[in-house]
Structures are given as structure tokens and as C-alpha cells.
Specification:
The chain has one domain (3-63). Helix 1 (3-25) packs across helix 2. The relative contact order is 0.06. The chain has helices at 3-25, 27-38, 42-63. The chain has 64 residues and is an all-alpha fold. The protein has three helices and no strands. The mean pLDDT is 94. The radius of gyration is 15 Å and the shape is extended.
Amino acid sequence: MNELAHSLLVAFSLMLVIEGILPFLYPQRWRRLVVQMAQISNANMRVLGLLSMLLGLALLWLVR
């Protein structure tokens, strides 16, 4: 496996671990959050997604 594929697999694995922490520790709060997120408009959800991606890219740039 080349270095890029390995790095992507590691990053994806860490994302799954981090994403699973809240539902594991606080399942009731997680359910309420999912219900609240379902009520957010598509435009606002896209803005949140864009901000999340930009923050991730900025952190990646700082680390590298």
C-alpha cells in the first residue's frame, strides 16, 4: 500500500473513532442533536459543511 493510501486509511479510521465517541458516551443527547440537525435548512447545512471543511484544511495546512 502506498504512503498516500495508508495516510488516508489512517485518517478515515481516526475520523470513525472520533465520530463514535459522542453516540457511545451520550446516546440520548446524540439523538436530540440528530433531530435538531434534521430541522436545519439545506443552505445552513451547506454553510456548516463548508466551514468544517475549511477549518479542516486550515488545521491540515498548519500541521504539515
